[in-house]
């Protein structure tokens, strides 16, 4: 089979490379010249474990190609996937669909024979129908079906999430389209119930509902962490105990500084808008957005309090900048407001992240010190703030911290360190939802 993947960004690249690994012929269309050049040279412009190798394998086998000629890619394609960005529209929180609609218009001009047009990008409910009308307006009588096929890829584990999905959701009612997409995903159909066929609006909403629910679960445990701090309970034990209930489950119950990334913030906001405009407002998701925004804004105050209330003249080491480990993505990362406030308050802030340094550089204030290693960031520091739980930080030993640091303050926003051990080494340890006794 042959497909065109419109958009060589995170979703398009991962999805295209995985389809190519199935033996499908994949033509990725990327309009950004520098990004296209990088892809053609085998340089992957994002950090995603295993992606460089998977792309190289697809190219070497002749299954994966990169270009900017949309007509060439669409001609003869069984399916055209729209995987372009749908960022939050400035001002009103809606998803910006201009790139999606532009792609649909361009594709409509290049159709040759029956084609399934698939939205892979996260798009509001009703977008598929609008794409169908755009195509019919541009090319009346075009022999196409439009389908929704949302992705559930997590940054840092995207290839695994594609290759071993909990489910594949295909939103379309046309038997022809279901047959084409069913064939594309047949290498994954290890379980008969893996592929769920739904209506197109249902599939579009499933994506937002899934992400909003996960964001709500994280926000819930974050609030429980705050309560634990007030009543002297341990949020790790609360999370473990409630997670043993099969109806709750143990995952996404790690408290932290608030969620970030390119999806949770965007998708929760979009769902709030969709629900409001549909006349079925989601007060829950509205609260998730508000609580999470407030939490991220409050983290710097937490650090300042731990440092005695005034950080002027203090040296503070920040370990972790990206919004989560195993990615270089800084979008909506909690580290950004924390560093900004500490620098503004007169601290010397030294930051280190294994993958996020270059993406972070334009996002952090002048005066931020970009340390070459975590040791360099910690050398002589008065305080350590752990923001992102990269594995490499988990192995830092308290006695090494004692040797490197000048001060004794440790603010652990991901509960990476053991409170009792830190206390035994004389540190003033501040975790999330745990009390160091
Ligand atoms: C998410 C969804 O998981 C994925 O299915 C969807 O396709 C895209 O959005 P991603 O944004 O890559 O994936 O990251 P994820 O691992 O879900 O984490 C999202 C945010 O929640 C991060 O800021 C992370 O730090 C935070 N988080 C996650 C927690 O604070 N605690 C947790 O237990 C889990």
Summarize it.
The chain is of the alpha/beta class. The chain has helices spanning 10-21, 33-40, 51-60, 70-74, 98-108, 127-138, 158-163, 175-184, 200-231, 235-243, 264-277, 283-306, 335-344, 357-360, 374-378, 391-394, 398-404, 419-424, and strands at residues 2-6, 25-29, 64-67, 79-82, 115-119, 144-148, 168-171, 195-198, 315-319, 348-352, 369-370, 383-386, 409-412, 428-430.
Describe this structure in words.
This protein is α/β, with parallel strands linked by helices and 437 residues long. It has 3 domains: 197 residues, Rossmann fold, CATH 3.40.50; 82 residues, Orthogonal Bundle (N-(1-d-carboxylethyl)-l-norvaline Dehydrogenase, domain 2); 135 residues, NAD(P)-binding Rossmann-like Domain (Rossmann fold). The model has no long low-confidence stretch (mean pLDDT 96). The N and C termini lie far apart (62 Å). The chain has 18 helices and 14 strands. The strands form 3 sheets. Strands 3-2-1-4-5-6 form a 6-stranded parallel β-sheet, sandwiched between helices. The protein has a 6-stranded parallel β-sheet with strand order 11-10-9-12-13-14. A two-stranded parallel sheet has the order 7-8. Bound molecules: uridine-5'-diphosphate-xylopyranose (UDX). The site of uridine-5'-diphosphate-xylopyranose has 19 residues, from helix 9.
């Amino acid at each position: 089979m042959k497909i065109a993947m419109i958009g060589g960004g995170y979703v398009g690249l991962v999805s295209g490379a995985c389809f190519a690994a199935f033996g499908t012929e994949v033509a990725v269309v990327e309009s950004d010249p520098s990004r296209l050049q990088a892809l053609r040279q085998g340089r992957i412009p994002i950090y995603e474990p295993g992606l460089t190798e998977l792309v190289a394998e697809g190219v070497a086998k002749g299954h994966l190609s990169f270009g900017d000629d949309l007509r060439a890619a669409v001609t003869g394609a069984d399916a055209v996937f729209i995987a372009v960005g749908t960022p939050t529209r400035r001002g009103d929180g809606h998803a910006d669909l201009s790139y999606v609609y532009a792609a649909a218009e361009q594709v409509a001009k290049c159709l040759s024979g029956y084609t399934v047009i698939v939205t892979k990008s996260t798009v509001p409910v009703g977008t598929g129908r609008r794409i169908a009308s755009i195509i019919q307006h541009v090319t009346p009588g075009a022999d196409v079906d439009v389908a929704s096929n949302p992705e559930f890829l997590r940054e840092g584990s995207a290839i695994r999430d594609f290759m071993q999905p909990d489910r594949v959701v295909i939103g379309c009612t046309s038997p022809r389209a279901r047959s084409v997409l069913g064939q594309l995903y047949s290498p994954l159909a290890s379980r008969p119930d893996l592929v769920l066929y739904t209506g197109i609006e249902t599939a579009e909403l499933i994506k937002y509902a899934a992400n909003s629910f996960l964001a709500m679960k994280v926000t819930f445990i974050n609030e429980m962490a705050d309560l634990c701090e007030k009543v002297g309970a341990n949020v790790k034990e609360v999370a473990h105990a409630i997670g043993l209930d099969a109806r709750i489950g143990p995952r996404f119950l790690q408290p932290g500084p608030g969620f970030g990334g390119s999806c949770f913030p965007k998708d929760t906001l979009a769902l709030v808008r969709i629900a409001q405009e549909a006349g079925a407002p989601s007060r829950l998701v509205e609260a998730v957005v508000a609580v999470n925004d407030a939490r991220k804004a409050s983290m710097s105050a937490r650090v300042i309090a731990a440092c005695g209330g005034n950080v002027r003249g203090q040296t503070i080491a920040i370990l972790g900048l990206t919004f989560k480990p195993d990615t270089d993505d800084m979008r909506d990362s909690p580290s950004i407001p924390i560093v900004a406030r500490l620098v503004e308050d007169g601290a010397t802030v030294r930051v280190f992240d294994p993958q996020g340094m270059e993406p972070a550089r334009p996002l952090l204030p002048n005066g931020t010190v970009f340390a070459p290693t975590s040791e360099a960031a910690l050398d002589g520091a008065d305080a350590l703030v752990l923001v992102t739980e990269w594995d490499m930080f988990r192995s830092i030993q308290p006695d090494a911290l004692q040797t490197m640091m000048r001060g004794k303050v440790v603010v652990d926003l991901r509960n990476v360190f053991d409170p009792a051990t830190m206390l035994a080494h004389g540190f003033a340890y501040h975790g999330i939802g745990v009390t160091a006794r």
